[in-house]
Amino acid sequence: MSTVSHGNFGMWRHPEDRTAQYTSLSYWVDLARLLDDGGFDLLFIADAVGQLDVFGGSAEAALTHAVQTPVTDPLLAVSAMAAATRRLGFGITVSTTYESPYLLARKFSTLDHLTGGRIGWNIVTSLLDSAARNIIGRQRQIPHDERYAIAQEFLDVTYKLWEGSWEDGAMVRDRATGVFTDATKVHPIGHEGRYFSVPGAHLVEPSPQRTPVLFQAGSSSAGREFAARNAEVVFVSDPRPAVVRSRVEDVRRRAVEHGRSPDSVRFLSSVEIVVDSTPRAAQAKADELSRYTDLEGGLVLLSALSGVDWSTYGVDRPIEQFDTDASQSILATVDDSDGLRQRITLRDYVGRLGGFGGPLFVGDATTVADGLVDFAARTGVDGFNIAYHITPGSFVDVAEYLIPELRRRGLAGGDQADTLRQRLFPSGSALLPDEHPGAAPRKRISAIR
Amino acid sequence: MSTVSHGNFGMWRHPEDRTAQYTSLSYWVDLARLLDDGGFDLLFIADAVGQLDVFGGSAEAALTHAVQTPVTDPLLAVSAMAAATRRLGFGITVSTTYESPYLLARKFSTLDHLTGGRIGWNIVTSLLDSAARNIIGRQRQIPHDERYAIAQEFLDVTYKLWEGSWEDGAMVRDRATGVFTDATKVHPIGHEGRYFSVPGAHLVEPSPQRTPVLFQAGSSSAGREFAARNAEVVFVSDPRPAVVRSRVEDVRRRAVEHGRSPDSVRFLSSVEIVVDSTPRAAQAKADELSRYTDLEGGLVLLSALSGVDWSTYGVDRPIEQFDTDASQSILATVDDSDGLRQRITLRDYVGRLGGFGGPLFVGDATTVADGLVDFAARTGVDGFNIAYHITPGSFVDVAEYLIPELRRRGLAGGDQADTLRQRLFPSGSALLPDEHPGAAPRKRISAIR
């Protein structure tokens, strides 16, 4: 996230952490170059456009601890990072709740051109009331399932613009005849829906991937249905393999119902990694990092995600961790006499490394690689989204120790692909596959022709 | 403009023109580097988010001749250009009609950070019905004067976010105490207006300029009033010195009524320049360029700007050029027996170099510099916005021949400034001056403190 603390609460206080330089161009350019050289496939940037003001009823703690605020716009750093790299992909978060699909389609087409086909879109529908208040003049956010209904129509519009407006042969560029575009091959999309009216043609000529690679992370029922229909990459974030496996299988099954093959969706698990030359050195590093964790920072985010103010609940009282239909596993206060599925405290949940998202692996390259392979086998995930503790340190370690080990095992690579989509799906093309529902507008204009 | 033909209709057919590569990163990075090295102050990019569909009643001719369509999003190339340059400023066009002020404020704050204070915003209110249909679901654009009322409130919101939300001392970044931001110095703006409700605080910490340098180009009465109240740089575009002088004087006079000093507004005149080592070589180059002008392309833009379909009016019939309250000098059909102020034809008006915007100067460096100096003296403008014929050729010539001559005369320079605002106003600071109406929110939080 283009902020100080995304999930690594307190780590900005670590003497080697550069996260507080997130406003500078060199921070992003250096990071992208490190990842590109180090063999990473993708730089993923989260985003949110409101301040976290549930904890204590105000944004005070979020500001003090720099939890997801201040925050800058991640789309705007992409072209600089693309210019400094050759193969790295970029997955950028933009909400469907605050944008016009006509203008957002132009943005991603622009970035797909500028990056040479290395852009992906992490589709979110936005959760925060504080964002709704400042952007769309609503006291409370649009209800969850309606946000997904809006998001689906939003995507239907963008599919029409990206796939069904400009035919492949539209670009003539003939200096002799003076015909730049064959206007008969540019089609108005004529979209009239419940939420959007977009009659015209796309503003941008076809880009390498046309549709950016589509990422999604929602875990609710509506979110999973949306993922199954639209997403090419799904983020999962839970340390419990059984929970992840169930989610993976559910989305693959739903994808098949939408006419897609089960392996047309890639699952990336959140993971935290502390790796060094020996297990002992890695453990020492993890212990040292742990000294910088910031419990209150974690509670600020937890409160925002759960909608519950955890500021007055004792951090050492037991809580229950359970799964809901909302976008995160969240917590609720419980009576101590209840049968707890997993008896942990708030301090356990948010106050430690690896406590908040996916699994935590600490060790040398062999140990961590074994752990990742085992987690993948038990869950069915295809890869990992590495949540950093400090930048660039966490990524330097992974590039130095872990990726060479994964390469020796044939588990990392793909850096010969021209586009992000081909990097993630090496046997496919740069374009959305024909079986994907978003490709339907492309088939319609082929049929007209 | 991030398109093939902004005003240089037909020039993409010139063998040396690279404009058709506008979708590639290297096109923009190379151009920015050329301008930075060549001593230009600023790269200005226009924008529009609809297809030009008045000529002939469809977008067919606009597409065929590549007139402002296809078009990509200019904001997204800025960071790459900033990373490749040291001093060049960027003036980017964004409309107030289709954006949320809360999100647009974040975008410009982000770019002001990433560029180190080299960003400017060209404020437009958007003219095209085709954009309104696809973005806000309206058949016709919002009426002209209401668009300016929306724009003023939009700016009032962004002034509050940029100048009146985060105090200078808000950023603590103390690793020892764990306080990143002093939350008592971050203020919700509490804006409740006719068009926007934005109660919260800005999302971004203060950037070098806080408010981007504000550009504006409207020439209507509402547009001039808006400029006088808000703009720091005003674009003027007319070859007739008396018309330009009247406009400059009017806006300066109105600025004084808003409590601003008359020289707090810089005027930049559109100009077309063909310069070479000798007058004869320059004239030969102009003659050669003229062979590529595209009359129909010009009529496509003229039709869109005037709202009149000029496709069936004979290009060699006389027309009258007159000034209206709209955003451009436009044309109307007239009876030949009328007393014409200036008897010209459509072919004269749009089918020649220099026919559409500011004055055209052709010659060696001395001749062109003399022409610019004379035009500035007769009009009161402070500088020039050079409309290119071909890229990068037009800029290469200016950098090679003209700028050294202007430097010899002490008329170009300013490249020691840290920020764009200081480059344009060398005796001022990086921030909006206290007398500017947009600085009022800053003074209000100082008073609270």
Automatic annotation (TrEMBL), chains A, B:
InterPro entries reported in the protein's UniProt record: Diverse_substr_monoxygenases (IPR051260), Luciferase-like_dom (IPR011251), Luciferase-like_sf (IPR036661), NTA_MOA (IPR016215)
Pfam entry (one): Bac_luciferase
Signal sequence annotation: none
Domain annotation Luciferase-like: ranges: 11-382
Region (Disordered): 428-449
Superkingdom classification of source: Bacteria
Keywords: Flavoprotein, FMN, Monooxygenase, Oxidoreductase
UniProt cross-references to Gene3D superfamilies, sorted A to Z: Luciferase-like domain (3.20.20.30)
CDD domains hit by this protein: Nitrilotriacetate_monoxgenase
Alphabetized NCBIfam families for the sequence: FMN_nitrolo
Family indicated by similarity: Belongs to the NtaA/SnaA/DszA monooxygenase family.
Cited PANTHER family: ALKANESULFONATE MONOOXYGENASE-RELATED, C2H2 FINGER DOMAIN TRANSCRIPTION FACTOR (EUROFUNG)-RELATED
Annotated protein name in UniProt: LLM class flavin-dependent oxidoreductase
